[in-house]
């Protein structure tokens, strides 16, 4: 009896430990397999994306369009080489950091002397322009799709902001006249905050949890803008001090690392204060890119090394962003709203955007926009990461019409990137807006 009892006790005591060890080993094995799968996916994206970038260079089209097509081909609905979910931690890290770094790169390419000429247009088109675009697109969705007006306006608000992660690399590759390119890039950086405010304002009304207040929304926009700008200016000045000051630049050799830390710091400093992190990193880029205006100058060799690093990192980030975006396109979901979605996006491209540009830019007598410049700005309003992120948030919140909004957002991404992006250089040449070499 005692022997059996002892044996029984021993089994009772040790079984959980054995099971725990097995469970731990299984979890470790599963973790390793997930890590291997993720590493293989990233390696494939880098390898195939590099070839796609070279192809885009050869055929002279913005690489984001080629990355999107290749991503669709590599995704689970085609070859099945890459399957990284939109709501996975890896995808969110790539989107947040990638979009932030691309924005920093875009900001660094802007110049104060150009911005002084066009700042009125940038402010108006990034605020009032978002409302105009959202209103026209929402009304089109209401009549074309037969959706309730508030749900249709929610779609319009989601699509209203342009995408800096798409536009910045396009204007890095297509040499359009400075003031036009910098206006479009700056608008795309500043209007994401306004787009989010309008989207969630309409959502509150649609879900019956609040009323839309112009005064509150205006105050919120001013607060987000001010905090984002201050965070960007402070970190931009600090980074310039550490890498380019005559006596204090003890981190000059580590300038690429300083930009990485500062981009992350600027985003989270603003985000932690309930402001636009993207606005902060864009302003950080402007300040660092114009450091000579503050009396800071880097050694030529260090400056060249930093430029090469920023260009390479921005290339890798947009490669990942747009190939993953393509891989995540849900054609089954889109097929339910295919025809109506194409009609709504056509109104967005050919009616809402031109109305926005002419109503916001024409009154700016200081900038004195020509008809050719305004016509070009009408065509450059690509939809990409920011609207996709808003649509994803609406899906997660189970907002009214969220499935329809996500479907048409992806239709807008495909149409604008695959139609507008490749024709940007052609249109710039036809309108005589290319920069002199």
Name the features.
437 residues; mainly alpha; Na+/H+ antiporter like fold; disordered N terminus
What does this structure look like?
With 437 residues, this protein is mainly α. The chain has one domain (89-430): Na+/H+ antiporter like fold, CATH 1.20.1530. Helix content is 78%, strand content 0%. It has 17 helices and no strands. The chain has helices spanning 2-59, 63-74, 89-108, 112-145, 149-160, 164-173, 178-206, 214-244, 255-272, 277-289, 300-327, 331-334, 338-361, 371-379, 385-396, 402-420, 424-430. Helix 3 (89-108) packs parallel to helix 10 (277-289) and helix 15 packs antiparallel against helix 16. The longest helix is centred in the first third of the chain and has 58 residues, at 2-59. The protein is globular. Residues 1-14 have low confidence and may be disordered.
CATH architecture: Up-down Bundle
Mean pLDDT: 83
CATH class: Mainly Alpha
Radius of gyration: 24 Å
How many strands in all?
0
Sum this structure up briefly.
The protein has helices spanning 2-59, 63-74, 89-108, 112-145, 149-160, 164-173, 178-206, 214-244, 255-272, 277-289, 300-327, 331-334, 338-361, 371-379, 385-396, 402-420, 424-430. By secondary structure, it is mainly α.
SSE order and pairing:
Layout: H1 2-59, H2 63-74, H3 89-108, H4 112-145, H5 149-160, H6 164-173, H7 178-206, H8 214-244, H9 255-272, H10 277-289, H11 300-327, H12 331-334, H13 338-361, H14 371-379, H15 385-396, H16 402-420, H17 424-430
Helix pairs in contact: 1-2, 1-11, 2-11, 3-6, 3-9, 3-10, 3-11, 4-5, 4-7, 4-13, 5-7, 5-16, 6-7, 7-8, 8-9, 8-10, 9-10, 13-14, 13-16, 15-16
């Amino acid at each position: 009896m005692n022997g059996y009892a002892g044996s029984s006790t021993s089994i009772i005591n040790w079984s959980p430990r054995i099971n725990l060890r097995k469970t731990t080993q299984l979890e470790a094995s599963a973790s390793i397999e997930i890590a291997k799968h993720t590493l293989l996916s990233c390696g494939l994206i880098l390898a195939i994306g590099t070839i796609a970038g070279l192809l885009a260079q050869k055929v002279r089209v913005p690489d984001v369009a080629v990355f999107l097509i290749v991503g669709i081909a590599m995704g689970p609905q085609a070859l099945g080489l890459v399957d990284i979910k939109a709501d996975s931690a890896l995808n969110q890290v790539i989107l947040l950091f990638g979009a932030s770094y691309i924005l920093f790169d875009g900001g660094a390419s802007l110049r104060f002397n150009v911005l002084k000429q066009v700042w009125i247009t940038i402010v108006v088109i990034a605020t009032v322009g978002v409302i105009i675009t959202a209103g026209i697109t929402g009304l089109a969705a209401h009549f074309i799709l037969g959706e309730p007006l508030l749900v249709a306006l929610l779609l319009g608000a989601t699509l209203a902001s342009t995408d800096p992660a798409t536009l910045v690399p396009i204007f890095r590759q297509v040499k359009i006249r400075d003031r036009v390119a910098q206006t479009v890039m700056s608008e795309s950086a500043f209007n994401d905050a306004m787009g989010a405010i309008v989207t969630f304002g309409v959502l509150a009304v649609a879900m019956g949890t609040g009323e839309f207040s112009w005064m509150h929304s205006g105050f919120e926009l001013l607060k987000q803008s001010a905090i984002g700008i201050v965070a960007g200016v402070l970190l931009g000045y600090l980074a310039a001090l550490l890498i380019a000051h005559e006596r204090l630049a003890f981190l000059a050799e580590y300038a690429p690392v300083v930009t990485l830390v500062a981009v992350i710091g600027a985003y989270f400093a603003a985000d932690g204060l309930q402001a636009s992190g993207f606005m902060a990193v864009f302003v950080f880029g402007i300040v660092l890119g114009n450091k000579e205006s503050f009396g800071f100058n880097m050694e030529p060799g260090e400056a060249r090394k930093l430029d090469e690093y920023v260009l390479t990192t921005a290339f890798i980030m947009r490669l990942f962003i747009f190939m993953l975006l393509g891989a995540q396109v849900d054609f089954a979901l889109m097929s339910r709203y295919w025809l109506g979605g194409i009609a709504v996006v056509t109104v967005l491209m050919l009616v809402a955007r031109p109305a926005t540009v002419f109503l916001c830019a024409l009154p700016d007598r200081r900038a004195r926009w020509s008809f050719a410049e305004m016509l070009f700005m009408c065509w450059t309003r690509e939809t990409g990461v920011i609207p996709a992120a808003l649509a994803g948030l609406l899906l997660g919140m189970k907002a009214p019409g969220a499935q329809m909004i996500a479907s048409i957002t992806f239709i807008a991404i495909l149409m604008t990137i695959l139609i507008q992006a490749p024709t940007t250089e052609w249109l710039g040449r036809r309108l005589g807006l290319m920069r002199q070499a």
